[in-house]
């Protein structure tokens, strides 16, 4: 079986973190309704939000390995997520806020700074502190532009 690249390659020794907003059927999300597909009807007892299929290759091997994982309805709310996951959300929200923040909902600079600050932990190179400084500088610049 030929295994082509679909969504992109991640080189050996590298990693990627993907964050998704899950919008249940019948609820309003951030994006407009799909142009080519109608939303399915809500019926029965939902046990999964979705299903992820991911392929990866071990270094110097021709065939990929498939990982399949359901996204369970019982997933944790952000407040119960690990510190690293909450940190990743703060970083993603920072990136969104730099791009006008239209998908951040009620989350602004102060909330991003607070989330990052609450999830600080020692890091050898001071990158988390540097990130928090960037958030505070962006917050200050944003408030100066609003004047």
Automatic annotation (TrEMBL):
Entries under InterPro entries matching the protein: YfbK_C
Pfam families (UniProt xref): YfbK_C (PF12034)
Highest taxon of the lineage = Bacteria
Domain Uncharacterized protein YfbK C-terminal as annotated: residue spans: 4-141
What is this protein called in UniProt?
A: Uncharacterized protein YfbK C-terminal domain-containing protein
């Amino acid at each position: 079986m030929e295994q082509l690249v679909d969504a992109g390659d991640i080189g050996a020794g590298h990693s990627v973190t993907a964050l998704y907003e899950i919008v249940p059927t019948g609820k309003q999300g951030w994006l407009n309704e799909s142009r080519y597909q109608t939303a399915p009807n809500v019926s029965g007892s939902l046990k999964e939000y979705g299903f992820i299929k991911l392929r990866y290759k071990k270094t110097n091997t021709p065939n990929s390995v498939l990982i399949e994982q359901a996204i369970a309805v019982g997933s944790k709310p952000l407040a119960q997520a690990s510190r690293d996951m909450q940190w990743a959300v703060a970083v993603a929200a920072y990136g969104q806020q730099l791009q006008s923040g239209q998908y951040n909902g009620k989350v602004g600079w102060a909330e991003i700074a607070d989330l990052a600050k609450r999830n600080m932990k020692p890091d050898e190179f001071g990158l988390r502190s540097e990130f928090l400084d960037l958030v505070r500088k962006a917050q200050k610049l944003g408030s100066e532009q609003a004047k």
